Amino acid sequence: MALLEVRDLTVVFERKGEQPFTAVDHVSFEVEPGQTVGLVGESGCGKSVTSLAIMGLLPKRGARVSGTVGYEGTNLLSLSDREMRDRRGRDLGMVFQDPLSSLNPVVPIGVQVTEVLERHRDMSRKKAMVEAADLLDKVGIPDPTRRLSEYPHQLSGGMRQRALIAIALACRPRLLIADEPTTALDVTIQAQILALLKELVRDMGTALVMITHDLGVVAGLCDEVNVLYAGRVVEKAERHELFAAPRHPYTHGLLSSIPRLDAPRGQKLSPIKGSVADNIPWDHGCAFAPRCPNALDVCVQVTPAQEDIGGGRLLRCHNPVRPPVVEEVSA
Ligand SMILES: Nc1ncnc2c1ncn2[C@@H]1O[C@H](COP(=O)(O)OP(=O)(O)OP(=O)(O)O)[C@@H](O)[C@H]1O
Ligand SMILES: [Mg+2]
């Protein structure tokens, strides 16, 4: 059974003197214990806003959140601030995209980690210090005992990111939302962090929501992928199926714009033309239409509905990419 069940999550920002802006539009997905679900898409498509809405961390003023966020049958959106605060850290962990603004600048790293251990795992200060050093070591921070007494500004950007991951892991949350946790890290540390997250999911049965624009991370970690475009899920599929046969032209474009080792020699990478600024509003048609190589007249006239195309896949497109033909092997 799903631990987290997000249904029709919608976030509208009210802006003074401007039209309200829908950053997240009826997004639905589920995550089971021990499962990793990816939210993928380019900058500004609503990934962070989705995660902040789930965690109850959007500003109360100016952001209208609707839909439901079921956590073991409780709608988190209906809880009070106090109840949510209690859940965060105990059941729900989050690695934020921006490490500097999520660490307390005037509290040493060690205290920020041990605080979590003392408060949420009932450890003594002494035991928590040992565990904290162990956690920093696990996330690849060298000389962890010394680092515990340092302040966030004394750490490099990548180290701060790792400290944040250590804090999230310290709670042993049953649900972890990781927002671009490895973007600021170099590849060796990145691989180490991804291995650590994998271990967490496998050994502790953590349900992981992985937010990324990096399809390499998706390939290495996610069981299921939701591709977001302009606040809506345009395609959802199991990871292998998505890579083998992307159906939405946007997903197809994302996959064609990364280098592949198995591509024929000399094959050119094809970027997606245009930028998010070219979007049309979803209620006028398909937001991706102005950038889409497959666009038809209907795409700028009718909003595509989300369709179940079988095999657990969902698609929102009038003119999808044809699935590759599997050649039959004759006996
Ligand atoms: N507090 C806010 N008030 C108004 N608009 C906001 C607010 N936070 C985010 N937005 C807008 O919502 C949209 C989605 O932002 P979001 O941060 O979720 O993007 P993202 O997918 O996480 O992008 P990135 O990959 O760059 O992190 C953007 O257009 C952003 O400008
Ligand atoms: Mg973001």
Automatic annotation (TrEMBL):
PROSITE patterns under this entry? ABC_TRANSPORTER_1, ABC_TRANSPORTER_2
- From the Swiss-Prot or TrEMBL record, state where the protein is found: Cell membrane
Gene3D superfamilies (UniProt xref): P-loop containing nucleotide triphosphate hydrolases
Q: Which UniProt keywords apply?
A: ATP-binding, Cell membrane, Membrane, Nucleotide-binding, Transport
Checking InterPro entries in the record gives: AAA+_ATPase, ABC_Ni/Peptide_Import, ABC_transporter-like_ATP-bd, ABC_transporter-like_CS, Oligopep_ABC_C, P-loop_NTPase
Q: Name one GO cellular component term.
A: plasma membrane
GO MF terms listed in the record are:
ATP binding; ATP hydrolysis activity
Tell me a GO biological process for this protein.
Answer: peptide transport
User: What does the record say about its membrane topology?
Assistant: Peripheral membrane protein
Instruction: Give residue ranges for domain ABC transporter.
Output: 4-255
The entry's family comment says: Belongs to the ABC transporter superfamily.
What's the protein name? Peptide/nickel transport system ATP-binding protein
Q: Which organism is it from?
A: Saccharothrix tamanrassetensis
